[in-house]
Amino acid sequence: MSTSPFSSAHRLYVKSLYRRMLKNELDWVVRRDIWRGRAMMIRAEFERNRDVHDPRALAQILEKAEADLAQKLHPDPYIAPAMPGGTKWERNIPPTIAPIYDHISEGHH
Predict the structure, then answer these.
(1) Total-model pTM
(2) What UniProt keywords are attached to this protein's entry (predicted)?
(3) DSSP state of 52
């Protein structure tokens, strides 16, 4: 049984980086069949660096990956319609259940 020298925070960071890269590719390429090939290339790059255990080398790899992602970010990323910033965000908000304030009877006792 071998234990990983990396913390759970490191694993979460790498997963986050991987997901952000996949999401950015999907912003650029709408067709899933084309995106799938690009996703496999991203996965291969992560797998290629899977066994790097030197902290300095790892920091360089991650720094380069972040820089590449920042350079390739889509200027107008896709936002799901119902998510904040999407086209349907808060479009049909249900009416409040609070009592209606009666302006007329307030002034006349």
Answers:
(1) 0.70
(2) Acetylation, Electron transport, Membrane, Mitochondrion, Mitochondrion inner membrane, Phosphoprotein, Respiratory chain, Transport
(3) -
User: How far apart are alpha carbons 63 and 45 in whole angstroms?
Assistant: 14
pLDDT tens digits, one per residue of 79-104: 888 888 888 887 877 777 877 776 66
Q: What mean pLDDT is predicted for residues 73-81?
A: 89
Helix (H) or strand (E) segment spanning residue 60: helix 55-72
What tokens does 10 get? 């490191």
Q: Tell me, what's the pLDDT at 70?
A: 96
DSSP 7: -
Long-range contacts of 12-20 (CB under 8 A, 24+ apart): 13/62, 14/46, 14/62, 17/62, 17/65, 17/66, 17/69, 18/42, 18/43, 18/46, 20/69
Name residue, tokens 């899977």: 50
Q: Which two tokens stand for residue 14?
A: 């790498």
